[in-house]
Amino acid sequence: MKLLDSRYGGLLLLAAGLLLLPWLAGNAYLLDVANRIAINAIIAVGLNLLIGYAGQISLGHAGFLGLGAYASAILCGSYDWPAWLALLSAAAGVALLAFLVARPILRLKGHYLAMATLGLGMIVSLVLSNESALTGGPDGMAVPGLVLFGWEPQGERAWYWIFATLLLLAIWLAQNLIDSPLGRALRAVHGSEVAARVAGVDTTACKVQVFVISAVFAAIAGSLSAHYTGFVTPGQASFLHSVELVTMVVIGGMASTYGAVLGAALMTLLPQLLSGLEDYEMLVFGLILMVSMIVLPQGLLPGLRGWLQTRRAA
């Protein structure tokens, strides 16, 4: 675990694992699961900055994912925009929306903040479902393939390298932000917003910045996942999906970047592993999550790290 504690040790370890994974995965199905884990991990890393470090809950984060996905789908499918321009425009549009709503929403605290972000996510989901002429309505819409300067990734393996690279970049950006003055300010806000304000921290600006950053992470992941799957539906922006994203951060370990990655991997893999249980799948899934949080209340990665340190001390 010492390697994971160093600034870039964990990143190098993860990069080595990602390099080996395509050769260990025996078929396209396993690579597809790995791609979906990477998509969720990118979103969870960004959301962890907001929840784990700044202490601001968001129950509507899937809305930003859905907006990113539909922006790319509409701009590429209906208006024939280049994929790279649609992706950048989606990220910029989501960043602007997040900036506009962040200041009034982040004035709230506790369950009031949770309800406000829940309302935001529900509005996005309803708009995507009801604007049938633009979004295809509840049935969703097809998304053209990703073409970047004449190159189009074909198959799960090609997409794997895209998602793996973006995941490493997301982690690197998150780690650098955590070690920056903004990251230290966010930890101060999480500890005591009043004390941080007295110490001279512009708490409102810090919270707005991290809200926008986490939204952009989700939008980019949403855009790429739309091109990868070739189809989008309003379900991607649903409340249940937002809860899943928050659960990834919490169960992996809040204020732990690699914990968020681990939580995303667990939450993506478990339904695949339990699919054979049929009627008992959700029962066992819920039981595993409940036991995990009882045994390791700080999250999987911090809990395992603490357990190993205790064993060494003994």
TrEMBL record:
It is a multi-pass membrane protein. It holds the Pfam family BPD_transp_2. Keywords: Cell membrane, Membrane, Transmembrane, Transmembrane helix. It is found in: Cell inner membrane. Its main location: membrane. It comes from the Bacteria. One of its GO terms (cellular component) is plasma membrane. CDD domains: TM_PBP1_LivM_like. One of its GO terms (molecular function) is branched-chain amino acid transmembrane transporter activity. InterPro entries: ABC_transp_permease (IPR001851), LivM-like (IPR043428). The chain crosses the membrane at residues 37-54, 81-100, 158-178, 210-228, 248-270, 282-301. This is Amino acid/amide ABC transporter membrane protein 2 (HAAT family).
